[in-house]
Amino acid sequence: MPVPSPSPRPPRVLTVAGSDSGGGAGIQADLKTMLALGVHGMSVLTAVTAQNSLGVQGAWPLPAEAVRAQFRSVVDDIGVEAVKTGMLASAELVETVAELLTGVGAPVVVDPVGISKHGDPLLAASALDALRTRLLPLATVATPNLDEVAWLTGVHVTGEDDLRRAADAVLSYGPTWALIKGGHLDGSEAVDFLTDGTEEHWLRAPRHDNRHTHGTGCTLASAVASELAKGHDVPSAVTLAKTYVTGAIAAGFSLGAGIGPVDHGWLRAAARRLPGAS
Q1: CB burial class (10 A; 0-12, 13-18, 19+) of residue 160?
Q2: Which of 50, 59, 102, 227 has the least C-beta neighbours within 10 A?
Q3: 216 assigned to active site
Q4: Is 89 helix (H, G, I), strand (E, B) or coil?
Q5: Of these residues, 32, 84, 117, 181, which one is catalytic?
């Protein structure tokens, strides 16, 4: 096997999120997504969870000083071209991360993680106001699912006609763009709605009959951040991310006794199946 030559430096993307010990979501999903999409992933760990395919058995937030030290260590030395936030656990950590992101000079994708796929709380109720008033105004793109929209805004989405109203409610808290993920709606297509309040994009993909979808939200937000770091504008970055996560959902696999993860490596597997691939 030939020895590879040094590669040019890839775009740098930072995830600020919690750990998923089962490897399907959180920091683990973020870094796998970033590797798959050709960027250099870096991490600031906010919380440790005991988590598997059946749910979250425990969660332990890190001290704010540990989060601050990780962030400064990475950003001050290595630099960053996009940031993604996920599980922030507490009001103190939301406030800390918002303070750190102020003036960072890179696009920020906020995945307002409040509850796991299994229904386990991942953000203290007391942190909701800080998320609305401190973090969302810093977001280039906010990526709530329908449960998170209801939790953040009180808007309950029951069909596509509600997505625009949901986006307007999220935009009222200050993000530049809102991506409302409609994957929980009924229908043959998974429909997401992206808008900045003026420009609108409807993103549709076939719905795959696969229950192994753990990590979908983390994966999508990390993919958006990765594409923004490459220089794409928001609509292009979201479109590319939607394509990636749709393939990852289609290839999701069984793991443990519950809900398995999406397959973050599906692009490499697909490339190996191409004619002439070794």
Answers
A1: middle
A2: 102
A3: yes
A4: strand
A5: 181
